[in-house]
Amino acid sequence: MHEFVDTVLSRHGTASGTDDVVGRLLAGESSDRLSEQELFANIVLLLIAGHENSTSLIGNGAAMLLGLPEVRRELARNPSRWPAAIEELMRLVSPNQFIRRQALEDVVLGDQTIRAGDALLLILAAANRDPEAFPEPDRFIFDRPNRQNVALGHGIHYCLGAPLARLEGRIALQTVFERWPTIRQSGVFVYADNFNVRILRSLPVATS
User: Fold this and answer.
1) What is the pLDDT of residue 14?
2) Contacts of 198 (CB under 8 A, 6+ apart)
3) Active site residue 74
4) Does the annotation mark 52 as catalytic?
5) What is the average per-residue pLDDT within 184-192?
6) Which of 54, 88, 94, 125 is labelled catalytic?
7) Is it the case that residue 15 has pLDDT exceeding 60?
8) Is it the case that residue 16 has pLDDT exceeding 60?
9) pTM confidence score
10) Catalytic one among 63, 84, 127, 159?
11) How many Å apart are CA 199 and CA 204, to the nearest integer?
C-alpha cells in the first residue's frame, strides 16, 4: 500500500496544481495542515472506503435482486423506484458489518454500563435489521416509513462519499438489470475472506 501511495504522490509531484482529491490533500500538507502520516492515512482511507464498500453494495445488491423477481418486475415497470431500492439494499446488505468506536462518556444501555474510554464494536448489519426499527427486517420493502439505516454511518462519522455511493450503486445495478432483464444465478456465490466487509469473489450468472 505504501508503494502504491508513493506512486500516486510521485505522479502528482510531476503535475503540480492538479485539482483532484490527492492534489487537495497535498495542498493541505504543504500548508502544514496535514502531516505526512495523516496524508498517507487519508489516501488509504479514501481508497478502501471508496472501493471496497461500493464493490460490496453492487455485488451483494445484485445477488439479492437475483432472488427477488417481484422487486425486479416492479423496477422494470417503474425505474423511478431505483433510489428507494438502493436505500433498502444498503440496509439489507450493509457493506460494513461493524465499526469501532470509543465511548466519550459513561452510558447506561439496558443493564450494561459502558464506561468512558471503553472500546466498542458496533454491529451495523444487526442495527439495520433491528425489528424495533424495521418491522419484518429481513423483507425487501420499497416504501418503509423509516429509512434511517446506518449502513453509511451516523452523525459526525457519516460517510463522506454517501451521495457517490448511492449514485454508483444505482447506475451499476440499474444498468445490469435493464440490459439483461432475464439475468439469473448460474452457480454458487463465493465470498472473499474479509472479516468486516462482505465482498463477493465470484457471482456466476447467465444472461440468456
Assistant:
1) 54
2) 56, 60, 93, 95, 97, 191
3) no
4) yes
5) 95
6) 54
7) no
8) no
9) 0.83
10) 159
11) 14
Pairing of the two strands 184-185 and 119-123? unpaired
d(CA 5, CA 43): 7
Q: How many residues does the chain have?
A: 208
Tell the CATH topology of 35-206. Cytochrome p450 (1.10.630)
Q: Tell me if 2 sits within 8 A of 40, measured CB to CB.
A: yes
In the chain, where the domains are located: 35-206
C-alpha to C-alpha distance for 86 and 174, rounded to whole angstroms: 10
Residue 179, amino acid: R
What ranges in the chain are assigned the alpha helix state H?
Answer: 2-13, 21-30, 36-66, 69-77, 82-92, 124-127, 162-179
Residues 198 and 93 sit within 8 Å (Cβ to Cβ): yes
Question: Catalytic one among 49, 127, 133, 192?
Answer: 49
User: Nearest Cα to 123, choosing from 196, 186, 208?
Assistant: 196
> Residue 18: CB partners within 8 Å, gap ≥ 6?
12
- b/e map of 90-103 (b: 16 or more CB within 10 Å)? bbbbbbbbbeeeee
Distance (Å, rounded) from C-alpha 91 to C-alpha 72? 17
Question: Using CA atoms, how far apart are residues 172 and 203, in angstroms rounded to an integer?
Answer: 15
Question: Three-class SS of residue 128?
Answer: coil
Window from 44-48, 152-156, 159-163 with minimum mean pLDDT: 44-48
| Cross-strand pairs, 121 | 100
Q: Of these residues, 62, 87, 94, 168, which one is catalytic?
A: 168
Place of cell 508513493: 6
